[in-house]
Write the structure tokens for this entry.
Amino acid sequence: LVKKQPIDPLGIETILLDAIKKYFDDKIEISGEKAGLYLVVSPKNNMTEEQLVSSALKFGIKVYPISKYYNNISTAPKNSVILGYSSILIDNIEKGIALLYKAWFK
């Protein structure tokens, strides 16, 4: 048996960022690269945080509200969510990002 070499989180992040750029192009802002096992994404589609979370969930994608990490919710970005990737399978990244695009732009 040949064991597969585990891919490091930064390798997964690179694959994830490439997929986001492929589907979203300039329709999204990304921050938090190299921060760990999540990204903060801000689609340029005028959806609120709540709309982003609920529309993604309709397509089976779970993203997280960023506002809960702010002491003063009024200072939180209105259209940003957290996209975690600690438990995502590499084979599901492309399909997941395609679904996320569909949830937010179609």
Notes: The chain has a mean pLDDT of 90. The helical segments are 9-24, 49-58, 90-105. The first strand starts at residue 28 and ends at 31.
